[in-house]
Design goal:
This protein has about 250 residues and is mainly α. Helix content is about 75%, strand content about 0%.
Length: about 250
């Protein structure tokens, strides 16, 4: 009698099962490598040079404490390096009232001001993250949690914090404590008035930071494109500059 190879089918099935299992194990390893969370230093560098990578990481793992601490310390240091007398002089030159203070009070204010700046920036960070959460999650229906927007915001804030510290030597050389890199530096030909004031109120470093936040909104919910998030945040930024320009030009 002829014998038929009845085991060919099951053997092929077993081989395919083993291949599938190997693929699954390999996939888990790859996923494990993808979710490896970068260090704070790596995230600090990536915010400037690879913001998409940084935002993907913090959207997946919303760690915000280290970024917030570094950011407020940089801002506190930048504030402490500017003499309080220069701050008062800049206010007078801008047409604002600046009460005269004895030297002892000036020295005290030089100590208090950096501390106040640290506290203020910390509170603002939590508040702004709440605004992002309300805008994207509640108003626009994105899938995002408050800690994610807080992590995105605190990391994006490292950009203006570093810029503020980098501008300290230029501020000391020019004697202008309020010096910023703003649109008015480019549109210097505008006559004094509302448009010039609005241009000066639009901080270019702030625009950079907002674009990184837009990248973070996209990383939190991939259905939210970077373009739409950037359009929303830039519109709010420009609107704020127009409002500030209105009051400062009066």
């Amino acid at each position: 009698m002829d014998e038929s190879p009845v085991n060919d089918g099951p053997e092929e099935s077993s081989d395919s099962t083993e291949d599938s299992a190997a693929t699954e194990v390999h996939g888990v390893a790859e996923e494990g490598e993808e979710v490896a969370f970068p260090s704070l230093f790596t995230r600090f560098i990536d915010v400037f040079f690879s913001p998409g990578k940084a935002m993907e990481a913090v959207a997946r793992n919303p760690a915000w404490g280290g970024a917030l601490l570094v950011g407020v310390l940089l801002i506190g240091l930048a504030t402490a390096l500017i003499p309080f007398e220069m701050v008062m002089e800049s206010q007078l030159e801008a047409g604002r009232d600046a009460p005269e203070m004895p030297e002892a009070m000036m020295n005290v204010m030089g100590i208090i001001t950096p501390i106040f700046a640290v506290i203020w920036v910390t509170l603002v960070s939590f508040f702004v993250a709440g605004l992002y959460w309300v805008i994207f999650s509640f108003m626009l229906g994105d899938e995002g949690r408050y800690p994610q927007y807080l992590a995105v915001g605190t990391h994006a804030s490292l950009i203006p914090a570093v810029a503020l510290l980098a501008l300290v030597p230029l501020k000391l050389m020019t004697g202008d404590a309020a010096l910023t890199l703003n649109l008015g530096n480019i549109l210097f030909f505008l006559p004094e008035g509302y448009l010039a004031a609005a241009a000066k109120a639009l901080d270019l470093i702030g625009v950079w930071s907002v674009l990184v936040v837009a990248q973070g909104a996209h990383a939190i919910d991939s259905k939210r494109s970077f373009g739409s998030a950037a359009a929303i945040l830039l519109t709010l930024t420009f609107a704020m500059a127009l409002i500030v320009g209105y009051f400062t030009s009066r």
